[in-house]
Amino acid sequence: MTDNLQDLIPLKLATAIANPLFPAVDSQLRAGRHIGQEYLDNYSFLADFQHELDSFYRRYNVELIRAPEGFFYLRPKATTLIARSVLSELEMLVGKVLCYLYLSPERLAQQGIFSAQEVYDELLNLADESKLLKAINPRSSGSDLDKQKLAEKVRAAIGRLRRLGMLHTVGEQNSGKFTISESVFRFGAEVRSGEEPLEAQLRLIRDGEAATPQSLQLAKEGAVKNDEETEDEEIQEQEEAGEEE
């Protein structure tokens, strides 16, 4: 029985799945969470079994990625069997602001601690406020109420990124203070490569590291088209083989 099991599942993969850490780590990865070195036990587990777990997740059409900064995450393909969620444009923009703050001199001066208000202020420094307000409400007049809604959206985006493991709360849960994880470099491709921000964002979408509803739909249509072409080729080969007989 054991020999038959080893034929189906490599021993090291079976060891990884049997590890008591696996259920929690697997659930976190499937939920889109990023696991960095600050999560010592989970990080060490992924580092020890990276190759085996990557093979395991590829059966679901996702890849276990270890970023240059060291953190782990799952990158889904267009045909993924694991449910995926898409970040909004504002959430991705907030992610980029967090990446810049991570690299800023203020991070050292403030012992790495930031607040939601600082993220909001930096966002307004980097982006056109009127365009941001229009993105939230096309009929925005720039009123105080519109600005309040934008601030609420930014706080919600920060909460979403916290759940993905990109931020860590400091003090009480509602303190509004947090530290920034290296996993924000998911939004910092241009920092790594020196590309223009727009080109870098397009590359992120092409690589599957960031997505919009439109890019997901195009990728899905492309995957379906490839499957249909493969099926047509197989039918044609069978017909040609029949004619030769």
TrEMBL record:
Region (Disordered): 213-245
Domain of life: Bacteria
InterPro entries: MukE_C, MukE_N, Scp_MukE
Alphabetic keyword roster: Cell cycle, Cell division, Chromosome partition, Cytoplasm, DNA condensation
Compositional bias per record (Acidic residues), positions renumbered to this chain: 228-245
Similarity section: Belongs to the MukE family.
Protein name, per record: Chromosome partition protein MukE
